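Students often ask why we bother encoding 3D structure as a string. The short answer is that it lets us treat folding as translation between two languages. Here is a chain of 312 residues written in the first language.
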Amino acid sequence: MRATPTRLRLAVLVSESAGTVTRLGAAKLEQELRAAFDAAGITAAISLVPGAQLRSAAEQALRQVQAGQFDAVAAGGGDGSIRTVAGVLADTGVALGILPLGTLNHFARDLAIPLDIGAAVAVMSTRAVRNVDIGTMNGEVFLNNSSIGLYPSLVLERERQRRRQHLAKRSAMLLAILLMLRHLPLFRLSVRVEGLAESCRSPLVFIGNNDYQLTLPGLGKRARLDGGELSVYVTKAQSRLALFRLACRAIFGLSQRLSDMRIVKGRTASIETRRHHVLVAFDGEVELLRPPLHYEIRPRALRVFAPVRNDA
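And here it is in the second language, the structure alphabet:
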């Protein structure tokens, strides 16, 4: 006679600043989450946590799992919030459940996790777990990508326009692009990927956790998150027109003509510049950091509840 499986027990940490919390309100969202976990047969201890306290809350949840009080930890929010909790759970063997409650939810999308709350919870109820790679930048974890140059400046301008104009995130980003392209930033950099070093003048260096698709219809997506490589994209276009042409060539698959972009892959990378500090983005968040920047891939360091790949 087969034993009845015990209910999955989750410590659920939801960022108070998540887009869905703002849209629905904390009380309504918590009600929806409780209903979803109950329907899936999961025992969930749900906590709404301020963003500044998310890391310490994740550390406490990890200790509770290790003490046998919970089986795993789930995180609700955008990519930045998921990254914070993932950084605590990496290399511990404790599985992470993902509630995509942000605006873009790139990590959830690349894992084929549904954006609907009930469907995302149902993924956890299957207990199907995948081991995926994480990237690090000077020891700081990122799940999707990190960059210097144009994109971090765009993120700051986007948030500035959201505050000033009360715009949605996507609308604010479009406005930020128009404003920032009037003054394209250029950086003198030394980029090293494993043994290959190159000096360049670039408006943008983008480091992906695995390979990003640069063409339609899957622009900006990753086919896999366990390939064990960083993908480093160095943009050499030095004018607005050249940058626009490069984007069009990439989007429409003219890869043989991408003379203004250098793509290199490897387990480690580093970026040096004479600037004392540079803006660095990782998973949609921006910090002012002191170079050099050292990047590394940590293969299969994170266990996540996610649909199993058909080709796995």
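Translate back mentally: The two ends are 31 Å apart (CA to CA). Keep this in mind for the problem set.
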